[in-house]
Amino acid sequence: MLRYTLSRLQSLVLSLIAASIVIFLTVEIVPGDPASYMLGLNASEDTIAALRDQLGLNVPSYQRYWNWVSSLLHGDFGTSYTYRTPVSDMIRDRLWISLPLAIYALFLSTLIAFPAGILAATHRGSFTDVLIMGFTQLGVAIPNFWFAMLMVLLFAINLQWFSAGGFPGWENPLLAIKSLTLPAIALALPQASILARIMRSSLLDILSEDYIRTARAKGLTRGQTLYRHALRNALIPVLTIIGLQFSFLMAGAIIIENVFFLPGLGRLVFQAITQRDLIVVESVVMLLVFAVILVNFAVDIAYAIVDPRLRGG
Amino acid sequence: MTLLSIKDLHLSIHGTKILHGLSLSVEASQIVGVIGESGSGKSMTAYCATQLLPTGSHTRGEITLDGTNILAASEKTMCALRGNDISMVFQEPTTALNPVQTIGKQVAETILIHEPGTSKADAMERATEALKRVELPNNQFPLSRLPHEMSGGQRQRVVIAMAIALRPKLLIADEPTTALDVTTQAEILLLLTRLVREDGMGLMMISHDLAVVNGMADHIHIMQRGRIVEHGPVKTLFQTMQHSYSKALLAASAHVPDRNPPNTETPLLKVQNVTRDYTLPRQALFAKRGTFRAIADVSFTIHKGESLGLVGESGCGKSTLTRAILGLEQIQRGEILLSGEPVFTDKKSNRAVRRKMQVVFQDPYGSFNPRHRVSRLVSEPLHLLDTTPVDSRDRVVEALTSVGLRPEDADKYPHEFSGGQRQRIAIARALIIKPELIILDEAVSALDVSIRAQILDLLAELSSVHGLTYLFISHDLSVVRSITDRVLVMKAGKIVEQGQTDQVFDTPTHAYTKNLIYAAPQLPANVRTMI
């Protein structure tokens, strides 16, 4: 297990280095000059030169890369050109919304998907199965922003159980969680639908395996067979999807953030791109890549916990 | 008192009748063989006795196990019986174990399920003991082993250990050795016999192979289409059998097709000092990759019109050699020449040579694209020609006719055919390009004995009509003996013995060949002469 973890860590570090190089190259080298790009078409030569100097663009690119990476390692993400504030502060504030929201949505999605998938698989072809599969079909088909707006109409405007948007901050944790609930449900719905379908098909595959029959022949009941032999083996494809979904939830929540007026990472990137604030774009993209790689690492470790065959190699 | 008694058992699944009034009984300490071809209902009989039937099953009749009425028992009662009083061993040891649980945990589970008060340490202790009884001693096979770290035979022992951990009264073994090599098969059969004698349990031994059961059973039942057509004590059954089906089955098991020995000595395929190394995965990021030598310095020649057998246990390099001969992979040393031309040139297989040889694989279900019609499947090798012949349809019809199928079969899909018919399609596909050499890679191993006899006859006939040369690869020694002129015995990537087939089988010189031949199950000598 230790060797496996080390080898995964190795590939984590290598992926981070590769990703940082790619991001650096795309943002700073292609296409054209970042300073004139940030300032737009009408900028004067002098302002561009000043910005180039300020951005440290007048040194060789390998040195710029090194400066960027070493300041990233010190937690210094640079200063936003539009907001004139340290990018690290901006990211920290946004992360306090995006990360809890992603975790909350993922929690809801697994909470719905696992029982639904298991129930559908164990009652294959029954009314329950058809019903669950029908709902998941809907869940995948309905655009989540539209579902979000419906929820706002019902729960925020008509019933007034939740606020329609905004985020009050973490001073009152209960209130904070409450304001994240509707967005989390909206995000979780399609994810849960996909996850439930994966869970069902994966479990159906496993339930037709020979060792399930062996377990039954040993005298295990259907329930015991399911919990002791089938579920753990069915988890592998499910974990893969959970990993992908978490990565998506971190950055892909942008539409939902807009619907609920939440100042999250997705909106930050969006704003930064429209304002040509390349320093922010670069840092946030790097952070998101880091999050994705980290989640993949966690998924790899989870694989090895579930399937001991992976630990050896 | 009879241990297991089945009386007038009827089974239908979703309305399809599977068993029609079947009766059989197993006494304590008795080994009862149930023989039948695929689809005869032998496995379903076992599932009736354990009530592990698929959904939609409907049973009628009477099954009693040691006084308990099985058909009337609740699921709860059955769970208590299964693994405790009645246990099962299945065909495929590679998939019968949960791949993510240690063998110790899986064996101990049987004990923990049935004796809930047992402490974990006690259960593990008893699991060790059960594994020791199936000859997997703890010092070599610790409880922490995972199934993938063991060979097929060892895994089958673990399955048996799970089944006998609580010393059940009845053990049902459903084709327990079909997926194993002959020497491993002999060991497993010996182990099962020993356990029956030690524990005084009854054993219901299900098999398609008369020879396997013949060596160990006390009583044999022969099944056909959901009925028992013949049964009796093994000592006298072969002499007294009346039913035409059992006679036909016996004849098919020992069938030897009529063949003419080849009359030329012209070499067709020359394999000279061939070595094939596989590169192993890296152990660390920049570490050097190791190699595994699958075949080492192998040389032999196949003459025109000859049928050469290649026998050996799984993992000996048979398949690697096939791939090398077909020019599918590059070899590291040596050369392979067909009619003097290399099979592999310029990092790819040599088309000019490839069209002179074809292959027929083992699995008649997996080797066809299910969405293609037979005509397309059979005409596939024509792509090896530089121009597609205009008469390809005629060729398909000709190929199908020569393997005993009808021209109109060309427009059907593979699923419309039985296993034996599919194997005929596979042979037609090989024939269409009029090859000189056909490699038969376990081509009859998945077939029932009667179908196998037909296919062997077909191969013999085709060889004399078309002057075909065969390389016949199989783990089944009796088949190899019946259809080949010369035989090679392969072990761990090397050829350890070769010679005329009869000579090698009658007077083997290498210790490994002797072992193989000794381990192969046989019908009694008087039966063989009887036919």
Summarize the structure.
The complex is a heterodimer of chains A (313) and B (531). With 313 residues, chain A is mostly helical.
State Rg of chain A.
Answer: 24 Å
Mean pLDDT of chain A: 85
Instruction: Using the coordinates shown, work out and report the CATH topology of the largest domain in chain A.
Output: MetI-like fold
> Which segments of chain A are poorly predicted (pLDDT under 50) over 5 or more consecutive residues?
none
CATH topology of the domain at 4-253 in chain B, what is it called? Rossmann fold
Count of helix runs of chain A: 13
Top-tier CATH class of the domain at 4-253 in chain B: Alpha Beta
Helix content of chain B: 25-40%
CATH architecture field of the domain at 4-253 in chain B: 3-Layer(aba) Sandwich
Quick one: CATH superfamily of the largest domain in chain A? MetI-like
Major sheet strand order of chain B: 6-7-8-3-9-10
Description of the molecule:
The complex is a heterodimer of chains A (313) and B (531). Chain A is globular. Chain A folds into two domains: 2-73, no CATH class; 87-310, MetI-like (MetI-like fold), CATH 1.10.3720. Chain A has helices spanning 2-29, 34-39, 45-55, 61-73, 87-122, 127-141, 144-158, 173-207, 210-217, 222-252, 254-259, 265-274, 278-306. Chain A contains 13 helices and no strands. Chain A is an all-alpha fold. In chain B, the strands form five sheets. A six-stranded mixed sheet of chain B has the order 6-7-8-3-9-10, with helices on both faces. A six-stranded mixed sheet of chain B has the order 18-19-20-13-21-22, sandwiched between helices. In chain B, strands 2-1-4-5 form a four-stranded antiparallel sheet, covered by helices on one side. Chain B is built from 19 helices and 22 strands. Chain B is an alpha/beta fold and 531 residues long. Chain B has a domain at 4-253: 3-Layer(aba) Sandwich (Rossmann fold), CATH 3.40.50.300. The A-B interface holds A 7, 10, 209-211, 213-221, 224, 228-229, 232-233, 306-309, 313 and B 50, 52, 75-76, 79-84, 87-88, 90, 92, 95-102, 109-110, 113-114, 146, 148, 159, 162-163, 281, 284-285.
